[in-house]
Design brief:
flat, alpha/beta, 13 helices
Length: about 425
């Protein structure tokens, strides 16, 4: 199998988007437990909040039969490794944002760097297009999801068209118009691969750039958004009765794999209760354990009962962990690699067991991993060792999910 050669990517960024009042800040806080301002009025989130969330997967220490590991970043609990991912919560969006309405321009700028978008939709239908509260079930979340996605597509189109108008004149004299296009679109955090794929999907790969119509440019820009910033829908407020049918309708419209029923508030309550030691709860699990009933007020007990009945029993989990896992593993197709210095003991220089878990694109090679760890290690790479099998592997070896790898280079590096 040949690996796709693309230089090591910068850190991946998950963007959280949505109109105001749909529970976007609550979701961000639940994911990061950072203190985003949570308030029920528009535009509480003006500066983008950047935080750290965690994807969750079975830690390789379990597979290797080790008692524990010592993560340098993130944490490991009951055999699950929680690996950090950057999350940005961007200003609330309203229809017309791509033309600068509300905080439109600010929103769009915050969005440029994201690699995948989580779109928080009010599945209960209790906020109108502008984000104002309305009785549950009176606004259509399918319409809401379409409106917001159209805003993002329109913004993408306006950026691409701007580049196109400036670029088309240059393209006539340029030897390589594709390079020029990729270069000019780099502000959107798109790669050459994204551009080529979008051209293929839009059916313009064999057309000369100079003969693209304005429809071609629009079609290309929409595909470019889809391949470079795919959107997963967080069908939030799934504890409300009016959400049940709406979650199904969202799945029918956008595809089952692109919609996750979520209760951001339930996750936030469970995580906070867990931090305070009231309950034992591992994010993503379908239940929790009350540590000491006597420490809870009757109101807190009622709240936990509600979460158990309306969220966990109904949906299997709060959906928040599944959402971030889906964005990183299914959509971005990242795999987890554990670099070590001692491939017999699975440790680093200081004896820490499996200290690092790298999230890398599927198709990453051994040498590319070396570059990610340290540039000098990439330059002086000799070979790598697969710690699970003990075999030597060359620079072109395609890494597999959960590989434990030692890099061997010509000189010692610190």
């Amino acid at each position: 199998m040949e690996c796709v050669k693309d230089m090591p990517p910068p850190e991946k960024l998950v963007g959280v988007i949505g109109k105001t009042n749909v529970g976007k800040s609550t979701l961000f806080t639940a994911l990061t437990l950072a203190s985003a301002k949570i308030a029920s009025h528009p535009f509480t989130t003006i500066e983008p909040n950047v935080g750290v969330g965690y994807v969750k997967k079975k830690c390789v220490h379990v597979e290797l039969g080790l008692k524990k590991c010592s993560p340098r970043t993130g944490y490991c609990v009951k055999g699950y490794r929680f690996i950090p991912v950057k999350i940005v919560d961007v200003a609330g969006l309203i229809p017309g944002a791509h033309m600068g309405r509300g905080l439109g321009n600010k929103f769009m700028d915050d969005l440029r760097k994201a690699d995948v978008l989580i779109h928080v939709v009010d599945a209960s239908g209790s906020t109108d297009a502008e984000g104002n509260p309305v009785p549950p079930g009176t606004y259509d979340p399918v319409e809401e999801a379409k409106l917001i996605q159209r805003e993002v597509d329109e913004w993408f189109y306006s950026v691409v068209k701007g580049v196109w108008d400036r670029f088309i004149r240059k393209a006539l004299v340029s030897r390589n118009p594709l390079d020029l296009l990729v270069q000019n679109l780099s502000g959107l955090s798109v790669s050459r691969q994204h551009v080529v794929e979008a051209m293929r999907r839009a059916g313009v790969e064999d057309k000369k750039f100079t003969s693209w119509s304005i429809e071609d440019v629009r079609e290309f820009s929409i595909w470019l958004r889809r391949v470079s910033k795919p959107i997963i829908i967080a069908a939030n407020k799934s504890d409300l009765e009016s959400s049940i049918d709406n979650v199904e309708r969202l799945k029918e419209e956008f595809g089952e794999e692109w919609v996750v029923p979520v209760s951001a508030i339930a996750e936030l309550v469970l995580r906070k209760a867990s931090v305070k030691g009231f309950i034992e709860y591992i994010p993503g699990e379908g239940d929790f354990h009350i540590v000491d009933e006597s420490k809870l007020t009757s109101e807190q007990k009622r709240g936990l009962k509600y979460i158990e009945e309306r969220v966990l029993k109904r949906w299997g989990s709060t959906g928040v962990q599944e959402l971030i896992n889906k964005a990183v593993f299914n959509v971005l197709k990242l795999i987890t690699i554990y670099p070590v210095e001692d491939h017999h003991k699975y440790t680093d220089h200081y004896g820490n067991i499996l200290p690092d878990a790298y999230l890398v694109p599927d198709g990453t090679t051994a040498r590319e991993l070396a570059y990610m760890i340290h540039t000098d290690l990439g330059k002086t790479f000799l070979y790598a060792i697969n710690a699970k099998t003990g075999e030597k592997i060359g620079e072109d070896y395609c890494l597999h999910d959960n590989d434990v790898i030692k890099i061997v280079a010509t000189a010692a590096h610190h």
